[in-house]
Amino acid sequence: MPRLALMSLLLACSTSVTAAALHIRQSDSNGTTTVTIPQRDADRAARKKEVAYRHDNFLYNISQIGNAAAFPMGKIGEERVSAAWDQWQIDRDIINGHIQKDVAQIRQAIVANNGTLRTLDDYATVLYKDQWLNASPLKPALGSLTNYTLDSFFGGERLVRPYSLYKASDKDSKLIDISDEDAKKIAGSTVAELLSANRLFAVDHSYQADQTVYVPSQFNDKYGAPVTALFYLNDNKELLPLGIRTNTGANLTYTPLDGENDWLLAKMMFNVADQFHAQIYHLTATHNVGEALHEAAMRTLSDAHPIMAVLDRLNYQAYSARPVGEAMCFNPMGHWDENFHISQIGCRNFVTEYWPTYGAFEPNYLQTDLHARGLVDEAGISPFKTFPFWDDASEILRVQREFFTTFVDTYYTSDEEVTADEEVGDWFEEVRRGPTGPEVEAQGLTPVASFPEKAAKKVLVDVLTHNAWLQVAHHSLNAGDPVRSSLTLPFHPGGLHKPVPEAKGIESVVPFLPNATASVTSIGFSASFNRPRYRTMDPPRTLAYAYSGPEFLAHFAEKEVHDAADKYLEDMTRLGEKNDARKIEADGMCTGQGIPFCWTAINPSYIPWFFSV
Ligand SMILES: *[C@@H]1O[C@H](CO)[C@@H](O)[C@H](O)[C@H]1NC(C)=O
Ligand SMILES: *[C@@H]1O[C@H](CO)[C@@H](O)[C@H](O)[C@H]1NC(C)=O
Ligand SMILES: *[C@@H]1O[C@H](CO)[C@@H](O)[C@H](O)[C@H]1NC(C)=O
Ligand SMILES: *[C@@H]1O[C@H](CO)[C@@H](O)[C@H](O)[C@H]1NC(C)=O
Ligand SMILES: *[C@@H]1O[C@H](CO)[C@@H](O)[C@H](O)[C@H]1NC(C)=O
Ligand SMILES: *[C@@H]1O[C@H](CO)[C@@H](O)[C@H](O)[C@H]1NC(C)=O
Ligand SMILES: [Fe+2]
Questions:
Q1: What's this model's pTM, rounded to 2 decimal places?
Q2: Which of 310, 367, 404, 560 could covalently link to 464 via disulfide, CB atoms 3.0 to 4.6 Å apart?
Q3: Which is a Pfam family this sequence falls into (predicted)?
Q4: What domains appear along the chain, each with residue ranges and CATH number?
């Protein structure tokens, strides 16, 4: 019954939306246009006028969901935002229809189970067996409902969503309280020995301890702990947990030597803290950066600029994400607070706090970031037996880089030609200076940090490749991943539904889990980000098709760009096939990934090429 609340809220929102006029135009220019760089444009005067018009009509409003990138306003800005909302609305109606069908069916399964979920197995079976087939036809990731109690599963999850993991240094050895004796029992070595052997890794969510910043959900029914944790590499270079400290209440350190239930609960507490980090990191580090670059481009590049065509393509629907978040996720007592332990206020504060670092540009180039955290070296070699995230991500990046290398080569024969492109020069300056205007100054917004100073051919390739990568990073954290993997129950509750224990010796983790109703709400919420229909559209709206299809390619007269798009499609499709073929092998591990579940979150034949809310 209470689930009707979720649906009525969604429906209430849709009523106010359909009242708005539909703006379907993607571009504010009049019937674009074959692209060209300004110095080759036949009518430079008209082009300057057009850029000036865009500059004056695409303005910066205050940021949304915390202080990060500004939000568009002005005539052109409002048109874009309105178009994005309308585009999202279509997807939203479809996925909501699917969720409603699925929820109706799952309610029957729960009723047939006497209306409750009594055991851990009930969570994995009643909630998932032959369920969610409309909203999530790919089903939960293989192994995710069967192998979650394994420490190799928990360690493996760090290597598919490595956003909070780093190689430990001296000060980190105190992140848990563990005796030499216990450490030896678990890892065969003391913490000091692991540290000096470069076999110690850490996650530190202790910042979440400040409840004036990370205010708990205003539903007052969920709990969590600002955990810190250490991980170690065993002799096979597999990453395994050494211990987790709660940093709250009795401040217990849990280890694999504890009773089964205590240790499982500790890992669930870790998951509660880590997914808060992952979800709000995704807002800070992907949406906001992508939007900031596009906004600056809207004010400096002509609609006929080749780079504008790429940025427009990648920012399809982009400006729906934050308004949708404001309206129905991070609103007071909204879906976020309903499902997660730390409130929407905490989410906003996280975005503001970490925009200068997670939102920085060059330091977050994939390899630069992973290298800084000790997860790969200069040559891209990781210390782990396998590093599934890096394997997939680096292959995708290689294909993206190849496309943008040809792209930049096609339009610029030399660095001097890049320098002579005043639109690109203005774009860089605009990104670096950041948003302006009374609204954003009052809010104190800062630019994307560490954006390169000056464009050159290689710099442009780096910038375009990283910008395109951010779209993919998004889908490793949001979109279809949570419903299939990172937020599957029972292992990944949004919050504990009982306070963090003051002592070890719990009899069961079940009382700490969301009840049947809250579980369905939580899975339905995760499913609302999934976009399974995109892969069956014609042409598909998947990463593989990012630069294919007549709509996009019509902008480009140069054969090189068409050929590069074909090559990109072919290479991405091959990566998609490899991803599709993953299964649990005879040794219980996923094909090529060495972990007891299959991580398929960034399949180029499944994920959208754009931010999809
Ligand atoms: C597009 O065309 C319309 C009607 O011809 C005109 O009013 C408008 O100013 C044009 N917009 C731009 C950006 O040139
Ligand atoms: C600026 O943003 C605020 C907050 O989202 C909104 O209320 C206001 O209408 C916006 N202003 C313009 C001119 O779009
Ligand atoms: C439901 O409850 C009844 C009566 O308590 C019991 O006989 C039955 O086995 C239960 N069914 C399930 C699926 O637990
Ligand atoms: C937990 O223990 C650590 C060290 O043992 C200490 O530094 C920290 O302040 C404690 N936190 C709380 C909330 O008790
Ligand atoms: C299930 O949990 C939700 C969320 O905490 C709560 O509002 C609801 O009352 C609970 N339902 C039952 C039957 O306990
Ligand atoms: C993981 O689960 C699958 C069934 O989903 C099973 O075949 C496999 O053996 C399990 N892996 C391990 C390491 O237990
Ligand atoms: Fe998102």
A1: 0.94
A2: 404
A3: Lipoxygenase
A4: 3-39+48-149+261-492+509-580 (1.20.245.10)
